[in-house]
Amino acid sequence: MISLLQHAAQHCWQHISQPRQLAAAPECQTLTVQLSLALGEFSLQLNNSLPLNGITALFGRSGCGKTTLLRAIAGLDRHANAQICLNETPWQQGKQFVPVHQRRIGMVFQESSLLPHLSVEQNLLYGFNRLAKQTAVRLQPEQVIRLLELTSLLKLAPQYLSGGQRQRIALGRALLSQPQLLLLDEPLASLDQQSRSEILPFLQRIANTTGIPMLLVSHQLDDVVKLADQLVLMKHGRIHSQGPLQQQLLQPELAAIGAMSLLHAKSQGSHNHLLQLSIGQQQLQLPSPQHSVDANYSATSYRLRIQARDVALSLKPLSDCSVSNQLQVSITGIHPAPHPAELLVQLELDRQPLQALLTKQSADRLGLQIGQQVYAQIKAVALD
């Protein structure tokens, strides 16, 4: 897995990670939640099944009920008449209530909550030896230490760690609890931008290598697009929609935040410090990463994040133009954008959705119509 996260602000294309190639682990799990509660003027009304495969993001504005739902799933809060089941195993049903320590859940919150009087190694192993005597251990400490690159930190005290390092320890401790599900409640919210850039590739690595499904709470769309495979959109205490991330990014509610797309591309090597990628039969390029969390950067597939405002359209390929990525696409939809002078044009590229944000004036001048073949112009921006 290769990361371009440290260069995100300078690229209109961004490699996020390889598509999930999960290690041997339980098959896709299903979390079923029936929950009805009122807290003052706020109510949470849920009767949904959530497929858990890779990283599933619970996304929505602050106050929509994401953390309340996560705490109920974890067993931190017990609500009357709630029903929560993982596959066929009831965690809460009628009078039955499985306490949090019996649900085999690993949890990471905004704050790492490390024990300050213990070293990094002692924090990691806190409770592990006792657990290893009682249950089958799938993840050993040396595996987790290697996975999260913690060797050089083991003898340090928590107060000498950066925010990103502390969250890596918290992730390691959660993994060593041998979870069947990881719950992440805004794990990046308290980090500065550099620390966020450091921790994101490790979250990707966990998803790629352990096969443990992750349920991520976030109100930052950028974080969701960098990490998630599935997106559950919450609104006013309800699940408004759910599904694969690529399709969920077409939701009008997300356009108001900042319309973007996610494309999967295959590597065709590199030349002159530019990655050569393909989507179907079409070629594109972007600057090669200079740094990687993984030493081996021979990725064969990439996730590409594209802001809709960075996509221009033309009726034919442009020859006298600095833009090298000119991809033939078809128009599948034309919708109003949050600003009255703009339109959101939905496109299809080798059966993958792509969005472009244009002014109405430009769309009228080009005579854009659904079903029309046009060319998407997207810069491959070099680093300054």
Strand-helix topology:
Layout (H helix, E strand, L loop, with lengths): L12 E3 L13 E11 L2 E11 L2 E5 L6 H9 L8 E4 L2 E5 L2 E2 L7 E4 L11 H5 L3 H7 L6 H7 L15 H13 L5 E5 L7 H18 L3 E5 L2 H7 L2 E6 L2 E7 H4 L3 H7 L1 E12 L2 E6 L2 E6 L13 E7 L4 E3 L10 E12 L5 E8 L2 E8 H7 L6 E6 L6
Parallel strand pairs: 4-10, 4-11, 8-9, 9-10
Antiparallel strand pairs: 1-16, 2-3, 2-5, 5-6, 6-7, 11-12, 13-14, 13-16, 14-15, 17-21, 18-19, 18-21, 19-20
Walk me through the structure.
The chain is α+β, with helices and mostly antiparallel strands. The protein has a domain at 5-21 and 28-258: Rossmann fold (3-Layer(aba) Sandwich), CATH 3.40.50. It is 22% helix and 35% strand. The protein has ten helices and 21 strands. It has helices spanning 66-74, 120-124, 128-134, 141-147, 163-175, 193-210, 221-227, 245-248, 252-258, 360-366, and strands spanning 13-15, 29-39, 42-52, 55-59, 83-86, 89-93, 96-97, 105-108, 181-185, 214-218, 230-235, 238-244, 260-271, 274-279, 282-287, 301-307, 312-314, 325-336, 342-349, 352-359, 373-378. Strands 8-9-10-4-11-12 form a six-stranded mixed beta sheet, sandwiched between helices. A hairpin with a 2-residue loop joins strand 13 (260-271) and strand 14. Mean pLDDT is 86; it is low at 1-26.
Key words describing this protein structure:
alpha+beta, single chain, 384 residues, 6-stranded mixed beta sheet, 5-stranded antiparallel beta sheet, Rossmann fold
Beta fraction:
35-45%
Oligomeric organization of the protein chains = single chain
The portion of residues assigned to helices is 10-25%
The unreliable regions are 1-26
DSSP summary, beta strand count: 21
Main sheet overview: 6 strands, mixed
**The CATH topology of the domain at 5-21 and 28-258, please?**
Rossmann fold
Supply the CATH superfamily name of the domain at 5-21 and 28-258: P-loop containing nucleotide triphosphate hydrolases
Structural class: alpha+beta
Overall geometry: globular
Adjacency order of strands in the biggest sheet: 8-9-10-4-11-12
CATH class group of the domain at 5-21 and 28-258: Alpha Beta
Distance between the termini: 24 Å
Rg, rounded, reads 22 Å
The CATH architecture of the domain at 5-21 and 28-258 comes to 3-Layer(aba) Sandwich
